[in-house]
Amino acid sequence: MSMLDGRVVIVTGGGRGLGRAHCLELAAHGATVVVNDLPGEDAEPAKEVVAEIEALGGTAVADPTSVSDFDGVAGMIERTVSQFGRLDGVVNNAGILRDKMLTSMTEQDFDAVIAVHLKGGFNLTHHASLHWRALGKAGKPVAGRIVNTTSGAGLWGNLGQLNYSTAKAGLVAMTTVTAMEMGRYGVTANIVSPIARTRMTADLAWDDTAVEGFDRLDPANTSPAVAWLVSEESGWLTGAVLRVDGDTIMRVNGFEMDQNVRYRTKADHKLDATKLDVGMRKAFGVLPGGIPSSS
Question: Could you tell me the pTM of the whole model?
Fold first, then answer.
């Protein structure tokens, strides 16, 4: 029996790049895959991926719903459950870019990216969670899995990608809160940060030297992690941020307080704005300290 036999998973942005690789990997492990992607002017990538999966003996259907359409995504969930009798996992992978420096970015540039990445992630997460919560309250077993997608820009920022970085950082927070709220219903939420060569990273400078035929930037490198995360086996892990770099997967810790960089005013007194400049310079180690006392 394969790891994902009998499980039904929706993958957004499933027609190209990372999404395509995820769909093929999920199907290879026995999952029924709903390949969600918008049709292009001269191609229908979701249908092409479905054809690939079917040619390999798998089961898949294409869905052209825009992830930014709240009611449309609800309909996609309903159609999936109606057709296959269940929903076990969702992979929020859809994305677009509108890269510009802050001062050149328009409202439309910002809104478009937020609508697909962040609102789109919310839409699918929200409607899938409603479905699983209803099952849980009805006393039925639930092993729901949510896998979101962030990036280095979302974790650490990147010049010219304020809108994209904001959306991807927001997805990390969404994952954390979803994990906190949905655990009681048998649902986990995790997020992956792939290092991969895709249409969206084509302009970045990569060290893409293959090592003995292994391509560390192949989008398919992240897909095994996604397949495991939507399996029942991964139910012990939730709220994790996982960075996938070629043959390695690493946990990324969230915001942590640095106890080595701190300034405290007089005990039990509020901070004094007039003393903060010197205090913060000392805390950050940028104030000359003079001759060390041991010299």
Answer: 0.92
